[in-house]
Amino acid sequence: xxxxxxxxxxxKKWAEQIKAEQPNFFTQLSKxxxxxxxxxxxxxxxxxxxxxxxxxxxEVFVHRNIANQVIHTDLNCLSVIHFAVEILKVKHIxxxxxxxxxxxxxxxxxKQHGLIDHWLRxxxxxxxxxxxxxxxxxxxxxxxxxxxxxxVMEQVAHICDASMIHKAWQQGQELSIHGLVxxxxxxxxxxxxxxxxxxxxx
Length: 202
Ligand code: CO
What we know:
Elements: H1 5-21, H2 25-31, E1 37-42, H3 49-53, E2 60-65, H4 75-87, E3 92-98, H5 102-108, H6 116-129, H7 131-135, H8 140-161, H9 163-170, E4 176-183, E5 188-191
Helix pairs in contact: 5-6
This protein binds cobalt (II) ion (CO).
């Protein structure tokens, strides 16, 4: 017997429950998706995009990677942004970090972690940009929390720099970029108030 049989059972129950509430849910959704939001978050299993936003399938387009990064040369993430902005015409892009992020912690701990160190290199760069401010915080948890926030702000700036975002704004497309941090201990999102809605306020 497969060790993941319970997943198929869970899936069947989930689909049946939705169909009981909305009989046409899947047939309608299979025809098209029309999400207003692109979520770029951490891969951490405790930060599930749809669930914490209270959103059903079809409502949020999602990209996740370790430490919610938007790297200028990451074809995967850039393709997601491109598709979300140019084809789906999402109105909001949400970059969401989370306190207690293992990726941020690993970038700060000074240890070797193997392959992932290359990915975390970008976080270490952000640490270097703000080293004086970060090193002034003696509590390691608080230092890590601030780097979580600074990382989100940096990724908001990276998105604003992307060519397809400039193009969308130049064409008058309604599109805002937001930076949030999720609190694992209470499930609440914090707005970092760094939203950008056009080239003028970037
Ligand atoms: Co994380």
